[in-house]
Amino acid sequence: MIWIDLENRQPTDTDIPGWTPWSEEKWQAWRQRSQDLVTELAQLEAVGQREVRNGVIDNNREHWSALKPWLLALSHGKCWFSEVRELYSHYEVEHFRPKKQAKSLGGEEHDGYWWLTFNYMNFRVCGNVGNRKKGGWFPLRMGSMRSSYAAPCEESEVAYLIDPINEDDVKLLAFDETGDAVPFPDCSDWERQRVLETVKRLKLNEHAALSDERRKVWQKVDDLIEQFKQVKARADLVANPVAQDRLRQIRKQVRQMTSPDAELSSVATWCVLFRNDRCLTRLVT
Question: From CA 125, how far away is CA 123, in angstroms rounded?
């Protein structure tokens, strides 16, 4: 999983690699259309026309899909949850808070967050391997406030699902040498629950191809680390230009694998941090 600074980004930004910026007029028109659609949904909700309301949502998929290329550009074309480009299948604009129906941990159903259907801050990019299983799953911690259209309080909800646009959330997810996504070693019991449920609901370990690829990345970085340690030991004994050049090559390879635009860069980074060696941390900084 990777952190996406969605709060401070807009489609009008000119510094996003691979993205042709929208004009301010186009962006404001998209936002106005979003407001108009939410007004229509609210009117239908007010008169109890929930099925019609949900039909309006389904019939306007192209509106949120228009932002898909921009959302993908923010992550260098990677799924925000799995951090791969192809192995997690076709990528979709996923609604973090479900549109039409929200399910709790025990399977109880609540009305969805329909008023956030066209709010780009509720959009995430997810491969359909995980998105299909997640569906309307969005449980809250017991005792948490639950937001509604009449009394919106999303910022006060305590959600189970780890959110890619929350930098602290993303740090809760770690990886091991087997290719599995696991809780951060020092996380609390509640944080551990969140990681385990997120991994389960998004099939972050069930999808064999994804775990296999993580394992390959880990092994490759692990091999580079061993090479680095061996070459550095020789370079430290005597001034050796050949050894110094090899160290630079290894650093370059590791930094390429841990770069934000590389697939599974967080796995590569964890492989380095797992060693808990201050000298090695310089490979990723």
Answer: 7
% of the chain with per-residue pLDDT over 90 = 81
Contacts of 142 (CB under 8 A, 6+ apart): none
pTM to 2 decimal places: 0.90
pLDDT greater than 70 at residue 6: yes
Burial of 38 from C-beta contacts in 10 A (0-12 / 13-18 / 19+): middle
Q: From CA 10, how far away is CA 21, in angstroms rounded? A: 9
* Beta partners for residue 137, in sequence order: 103
Which candidate, 133, 139, 131, 130, places its Cα nearest to that of 109?
139
Q: How many CA atoms lie within 13 A of 53 on its CB side?
A: 22
Can you read off the two tokens belonging to residue 64?
């949120």
C-alpha distances in Å from residue 118, one per residue of 22, 35, 95, 152: 18, 8, 9, 15
